[in-house]
Amino acid sequence: MDIHVVTGFPDLLSPLNESIPGKAQEKNIVTVHCHNIRNYATDKHMQIDDYPYGGGAGVILKPEPIFNCVEHVREKFGLDCPLIYTTPQGKPLTQKLATELSFRKQLFLLCGHYKGIDERVKEQLVGEEISIGDYIITAGELAAMVIIDSAVRLIPGVINDIDSADTDSFQTGLLDYPHYTRPADYRGMKVPEILLSGDHARIEAWRYEQTLQKTRAKRKDLYKKYME
Q: Do residue 15 and residue 96 come from a single domain?
């Protein structure tokens, strides 16, 4: 997967070099390119934001640096994928969407910031809008990293044990079952006997029942949808 991120704050994306995304790059399964829109500003101060027409609080990301950057990146790297804008107004990021993104050969993301971007950027450049939740964060770079991480970890070869990802919460529509590791008895708290039995059929049945119970208790909306 070839990933390109358009941002005014590239240093915020440094965690992509750690953990799973970092290993994916080390294995040459994924490449990540960060493009600083400040390098495409049109004034000597390299300004990327300005006050909104009509008044109001906050500032808006200017159109010129974004247009210049996006058009240059598309031409240089031959990108033909939609530009994804990180915004609370976008469609929610779900495990299903993350799985769909993981099959793409290219990801092209534009990070929102401040009060957002000039509407003309949305109208002319943006192909998709994705939200990581119904709340506001300081930087769209954080959302971009969540989107990238959720997709990259599902690419074959990134995680050594792909079964680990296949059994994650939401992958099946239910929350994950409880997990235990050594020691079997810690301060009097014992691992359920069935997990020590070696009876894989019974263990799978227990885990399935646990996913149902946990989902019913914590996420009634998911449980209802699953049982329909």
A: yes
19 and 53, same domain (yes or no): yes
Peptide bond into 156 cis (omega under 30): no
Q: Mapping DSSP to helix (H, G, I), strand (E, B) and coil, where does residue 184 land?
A: coil
Q: What string of DSSP letters covers 64-97?
A: HHHHHHHHHHHHHHT--SPEEEEEEEEEEP-HHH
Backbone angles phi, psi at 202, to 5 degrees: -65, -35
Q: What residue numbers bound the domain in which 142 lies?
A: 2-152
If asked whether residues 178 and 87 sit together in one domain, one would say no
Check whether residue 174 and residue 146 sit in a common domain.
no
CB atoms within 10 A of CB 214: 17
State if pTM tops 0.90: no
Q: Which residues of the chain have pLDDT under 70?
A: 161-170
The Cα–Cα gap between 180 and 18 comes to 26
Residues 83-140 have pLDDT tens digits of 999 999 999 999 999 999 999 999 999 999 999 999 999 999 999 999 999 999 999 9
Task: Please identify, among 88, 122, 152, the residue that sits at the C-terminal boundary of a domain.
Answer: 152
The verdict on 143 and 65 lying in the same domain is yes
- Specify the amino acid at residue 55: G
For residue 161, tell me if it sits in a domain. no
Length of the chain: 228
